[in-house]
Structure prediction request, 307 residues.
Amino acid sequence: MGFFLEVLIGGLLAGVLYSLVALGFVLIFKASGVFNFAQGAMVLTAALALVRALELFEQWKWPFWLALIAAFLFAAVIMAAIAWLAEKLVLRKLVNQEGIILFMATIGLTFFLEGLAQTLFGADVYPLNIGLPKEPLFVLESLFDGGILVNELDIWAAVIAGLLVAGLAVFFQRTRIGRALRAVADDHAAAQSVGIPLNQIWFIVWLVAGLVALAAGAVWGSKLGVQFSLSLLALKALPVLILGGFTSVPGAIVGGLIIGAGEKLAEVFLGPSMGGGIEIWFAYVVALLFLLFRPQGLFGERIIERV
Prediction:
């Protein structure tokens, strides 16, 4: 029982890390109806900006916490600039266009951001230390012999994800800008007709998604190192989005927990009898089943079109 709980908890905490990436997708899709394929590249760019700025400030002999705060501010400014340029040069030109056109534009933005990040910050693997503990931690030693092993970094990631979800839920439901974002997602033209400034709204949502990408990049970079494979996290977030629903912030968390726990349990308990490798494809098989039987996801809005 103790080993099962250890695998389950490890999977749930890994799922929280997937959810951090999925949150950025949900934000932009919820507010603009655009599936932002560039979210993975935004995570990579934010993480690279953070780690390179931190290296620079530490070379200048700044105290660690001051250097870390300055590095986060620098990376946030970079993400704000990307949000402004994406709105001004890409989205503003494609107002009221079909969703597939906007989707293709985000694919182009992906390759641009990856090339820009490599040019500005380099393509090496950079270790990132943001002050979060990474030591293994044994819990429930009084209940199970030897206790249950968890990673402190994963626990902090869960705390960060919980705070983000709570903040974003309040932002969307309780603020005037949040309601405007949801109105724009429903109908661009109708939102403009009642005086909602579409350009400002899109900049705000891309900025928030960029800051969420910064949080995800900081945690993932701290865990795995900052490297270009971080941009592939977009592919891992897709099953999470399909399970939770593309328009649900809590759904991103629940979907991540299901995928994380499911793939770890399947790999440990079914993998030996099936030759291993289940963790690679398990999430996509589950997502396919959801697409067949519940395409809107667990928390997504069911769309009924009348003709």
The chain has one domain: 2-293. The chain has a mean pLDDT of 81.
